[in-house]
Amino acid sequence: MSKDFPRFITELTPRFTAVIDAEFSEEDYIAIDLSAENSALSLVDITSASSFGGFINEYLRRSGKKVAYGGYKEIRKLYQRSGLFSEPGEKDLERNVHIGMDFWADAGTAVLAALDGKIHSFKDNASFGDYGPTIILEHEYHEHTFYTLYGHLSRKSLENLKYGDEVKSGQKIGALGTAEENGDYAPHLHFQVIEDLQEQAGDFPGVTSVNELDFYLRNCPDPNLLLKIRRVEG
């Protein structure tokens, strides 16, 4: 992995870049704290996609915004509900650090390619708490190959896809899925930048343990270096 990768992706885009509905302006976005430190979440049943979605929707209603975003390097309790993120008796291996960026909006909201690229792989990661339908794009800029991952999509998003198909920046590649198809979450996009895909296809960890955090932070830098959303607090 290149130590210059974060700077490299920063230089690819000069301004705000959307990965969901192109009709949303940057002013429609607001940051949200879903970390274990947010005491407001203690009043929410985080095991319920409906309850969690209600919390998100109320947050957006009060703010007057349309998209809640954030989550990079955030330690969350949300993943405790699924055995997918832990090993029995191995507390140090619990995966609870989020290494992508989430965009919370209505199911059906369009998902857009962040950059020119091609379809690398796709898969319905259908386990409880997983990504659900997922698309990975491959990008090559200045002889440097890297990837972007789009998780929690609708199942229809995977229809008629072909490996190697070219996509353009801003092109619609799918839509946000419902809880019934996206791994049982309130509707949102998990967006992640990955330098080394480690020979995986249609899937890549979006949450890691503290023990492996250094590797994943190097391999998966903050997506906002690419997207450049000005932070607005709720």
Brief sketch in words of this structure:
This protein is α+β, with helices and mostly antiparallel strands. The protein has helices at residues 5-10, 49-63, 213-219, 224-227, and strands at residues 29-31, 67-70, 74-75, 97-98, 101-104, 110-112, 117-125, 132-141, 144-151, 166-167, 172-175, 188-194, 207-208.
Please characterize this protein's 3D structure:
- This protein is an alpha+beta fold.
- It has one domain (5-227): Distorted Sandwich (Glucose Permease (Domain IIA)), CATH 2.70.70.
- Helix content is 14%, strand content 26%.
- The chain has 4 helices and 13 strands.
- The strands form 3 sheets. It has an 8-stranded mixed sheet, covered by helices on one side.
- Strand 1 (29-31), helix 2 (49-63) and strand 2 (67-70) form a beta-alpha-beta unit.
- It is globular and about 50 Å long.
- The model has no long low-confidence stretch (mean pLDDT 92).
- It comes from Salegentibacter chungangensis.
- Residues 97-196 form the M23ase beta-sheet core domain.
- This is Peptidoglycan DD-metalloendopeptidase family protein.
- It holds the Pfam family Peptidase_M23.
Q: What's the average pLDDT? A: 92
- Tally of individual domains: 1
Order of helix and strand elements from N to C terminus? HEHEEEEEEEEEEEEHH
| Rg from Cα | 17 Å
Q: What percent of residues adopt helix (DSSP H or I)?
A: 10-25%
Would you tell me which CATH topology applies? Glucose Permease (Domain IIA)
> What is the multimeric organization of the chains shown?
single chain
**Could you tell me the strand content as a percent range?**
25-35%
CATH superfamily assignment?
Glucose Permease (Domain IIA)
C-alpha end-to-end distance: 35 Å
Strand order of the largest sheet: 1-2-5-12-9-8-7-10
